[in-house]
Design a protein that fits this description.
The complex is a heterodimer of chains A (399) and B (118).
Chain A: H1 2-5, H2 7-21, H3 26-63, H4 79-88, H5 100-116, H6 135-156, H7 160-191, H8 196-202, H9 207-210, H10 212-225, H11 237-240, H12 250-274, H13 284-287, H14 292-313, H15 319-345, H16 355-386, H17 390-398
Helix pairs in contact in A: 2-3, 3-12, 3-14, 4-12, 5-6, 5-12, 6-7, 7-10, 7-15, 10-15, 12-14, 15-16
Chain B: H1 4-29, H2 58-82, H3 89-111
Chain lengths: 399, 118
């Protein structure tokens, strides 16, 4: 019974036992287990592409009142597999004028960090690639390589559209990194650890309920970093074809495609780890740890559905507004939230068991006040810029 | 502590192998018939004119500079956040002054129009 309930951890122990029984030295056992775990994580990451491409196309299609892919097997669920086969057999064209080395390097450089992030994502208690003590910092450091890869792709293609995209990388991805870091800092302040598993363990209440500001900022920034519509200004197809991907075809294009979906999945798991309680779900993870990866998946699918919902609902932002939004709204808001967290953590409490609840309540109250003040300021600014009757004018034209 | 990174090392190696395997498989399967039209620069059918590799505008560097300031701040604040429960009043006040200086820096950049898109 214990074996089934704690399946993932027991499986590792069993494999270790079998290998040592065969007389494999300790370093060999560790190496083999590492390789097995890496392969499992890679397969989980790649499977995300096969699962979330049909999901995205179906969900978006339903939101736009059309059936979406419905030919490949029942309900078109195998459309991703058909896409993969097509990508494999497509001719790979390198433009004459492109910088061949950079053109080749970019798809590699975009895939590798997208997969590497999975090394520190917790799928359950002790069900984690490696619980680094600087896990969050590792995620930030690795995912930044992605910026460089897109810059290289845009510059190396020797194409005007790709170059425009490379320009935008500098602004968009760098601007949205800062509020993201500030939100993670607030989480680290409350949990006092940078290890991803430690953050989940320290979350008595999901942090999205404790500090909705940080959660929302992180979600917006994550969408900007993963280059999802409505903030997909890097590839905005109505403005510059496909941005940095214009000159890519065949498997090299597929690499960007895979990286985008793996990134999206990883970011959904990061959001559920930092803000939605990770593998915890009302004590279910203690009763049956075997279910914890599925809890994480369920939360990730929910976050991805939110992203698709945003994509189906909001129009694409204008570029200068996008950058201003990051620097003039999200960064100050993130800073204020960080300062609030720093104050709240120092609240003295008589009984240690009530600490998270008191902190959570004060933090939530502070957050709501900050949101109210922020929207008051926004409202006044909007009135100054657009005139007092902007909203009335819009309503009038709607009628 | 350092042995934690064995796993990361294995992961890096496998993650580097993966795209090479995928690209190699495609290299075996795909047709290879380039011609001058195919390898031309694709700009929606129009002939490309002028030099593509031009200089970035100075505006981008200003944004990048503000970014560097904040990113370095993050590097300093992460250890502070982890050790927060152990630090005394001195470090607490100091970190707030640090954050305040940063905020003033952002306000200055804002005021000077560095964050205005032209």
């Amino acid at each position: 019974m214990k074996f089934i309930l704690n399946f993932w951890v027991e499986l590792g122990n069993w494999l270790e036992g079998v290998l040592s029984g065969w007389g494999v030295p300790t370093w060999g056992v560790n190496l083999i287990i590492d390789i097995v775990v890496v392969l499992i994580l890679l397969i989980v990451g790649i499977m995300a592409v096969l699962i979330f491409t049909p999901m995205e196309r179906k969900v978006i299609a339903r939101m736009q009142d059309r059936p979406g892919p419905n030919r490949v097997w029942p309900y078109g669920v195998l459309i991703a597999l058909a896409d993969a086969i097509k990508m494999l057999t497509k001719e790979d064209i390198t433009p004459r004028k492109a910088d061949r080395a950079l053109h080749m390097l970019a798809p590699l450089l975009v895939t590798i960090p997208a997969l590497l992030v999975f090394a520190v994502l917790p799928f359950g208690f002790r069900v984690i690639g490696q619980d680094l003590n600087v896990g969050v910092l590792f995620i930030l450091a690795i995912s930044t390589i992605h910026v460089l890869a897109i810059l290289i792709a845009g510059w190396g293609s020797n194409n005007k559209f790709a170059l425009l995209s490379a320009f935008r990388v500098v602004n968009q991805l760098l601007a949205y990194e800062i509020p993201m870091v500030l939100c993670i800092l607030a989480v680290v302040l409350l949990t006092r650890t940078m290890s991803t598993q430690g953050i989940v363990e320290a979350q008595t209440i999901p942090f999205f309920l404790v500090m909705p500001i940080a959660g929302m900022i992180f979600l917006i920034c994550a969408m900007a970093e993963a280059n999802r519509s409505p903030v997909d200004l890097l590839e905005a197809d109505s403005e510059m074809v496909a941005g940095y991907m214009v000159e890519y075809s065949g498997m090299k294009f597929a690499m960007f495609f895979i990286a985008e979906y793996v990134n999206m999945f990883a970011i959904a798991i990061i959001i559920s780890t930092l803000f939605l309680g990770g593998y915890k779900f009302f004590g279910l993870e203690d009763v049956a740890p075997v279910l914890s990866p599925f809890i994480v998946f369920a939360k990730a699918v929910f976050v991805i559905f939110l992203m698709l919902w945003f994509r189906g609902t909001f129009p694409r932002m204008r570029f200068d507004q996008l950058v201003s939004f990051a620097w003039k709204f999200l960064v100050p808001l993130g800073l204020v939230n960080l300062m609030l967290a720093a104050l709240v953590v120092k609240i003295p409490a008589a009984n240690p068991s009530t600490v998270p609840w008191i902190q959570g309540a004060v933090m939530l109250a502070g957050n709501l006040i900050i949101i109210a003040v922020a929207f008051l300021i926004l409202n006044r600014t909007a009135r100054r810029v657009d005139g007092p009757s902007a909203l009335k004018r819009i309503v009038a034209t709607e009628r | 502590m350092l042995s934690d990174y064995n796993f990361i090392g294995v992961f890096v190696i496998v993650a580097i192998i993966f795209p090479f395997v995928a690209l190699g498989l495609a290299w075996l399967l795909r047709p290879k018939k380039p011609n001058p039209v195919k390898t031309d620069t694709y700009e929606c059918g129009l002939q490309t004119t002028g030099e593509t590799w031009v200089q970035f505008r100075a505006q981008y560097y200003i944004y990048a500079l503000v970014f560097v300031v904040f990113d370095i701040e993050a590097v300093f604040l992460f250890p502070w956040a982890v050790a927060y429960s152990k630090v005394g009043l001195y470090a607490w006040v100091e970190a707030f002054i640090f954050l305040a200086v940063l905020t003033v820096g952002l306000a200055y950049a804002w005021r000077k129009g560095a964050l205005r898109w032209q």
